[in-house]
Each structure stands twice: as structure tokens, then as C-alpha cells.
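Hi support team,

I submitted a single chain yesterday and got back a structure, but I'm not sure I'm reading the C-alpha cell output correctly. Could someone confirm the output below corresponds to the sequence I sent? I've pasted both exactly as they appear in my results page.

Thanks,
R.
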Amino acid sequence: MPHPDNYIAVLPPARVTKLLAQVSEMKLSDRDAQAVKAKIFSNALSFTFDKQGRFGITASLLGHGSIAKDAVLCGMGDTFNIMSPARWTEMDRATAGENFGDMMRRIGL
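Hi R., thanks for writing in. Yes, this is the structure output for that exact sequence:
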């Protein structure tokens, strides 16, 4: 599914079910909530792997992530993200050195 930080987030079915339950509780009259729900689920892709272990990604998701040819897979525990190399470099720089320690302290790790 498209992530608001311009990459592709890949979630296991259980996490998608939890997300769907969460957005289903949002008011129908909440325009922002409905727009976010439409953006996420109209672009989300369910996939399986072929015999070689590959899966396909739609052109719209690749465009959302600015992925043309190469991509970086970033493991996140029970999920992973697919990013353009430029996006990964940007994220890697933002979490480098003392910034990483500051971030860990801020989130309580």
C-alpha cells in the first residue's frame, strides 16, 4: 500500500485486517478520513509469489514510491517497505549518527 512518506509499505494480512477495522470506525462524514481510506485501499495490492519467489507491483504504486528501476527492501520486523534508492538514502541520512540516538530516546527505546 502507498505510505504517505512516498514509499510502498508491505503488510501481512493480519495487519491489513487491523488497519481496515480501524478506518472502518471513522465517520462517513469525515472527509479527510474517507479520503485517506480511499487513497490507501484503492491503491493497495494483494499479491502472491510466483514459482521463482517474485511478486508484481502496479505502476501506480511504483510511481507513488518514485521507483523506476532499482528498489531497496527495508525490513521492519513483521512488515517491510519498498523504497527508491534516493528515498532510502534520505532516510538513512536522517537516522545517522547522533540523530539515531536522539530518535531512540524520543520514542522511548
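A quick pointer for reading it: The chain is about 45% helix and 15% strand. Let us know if anything else looks off.

Best,
Support desk
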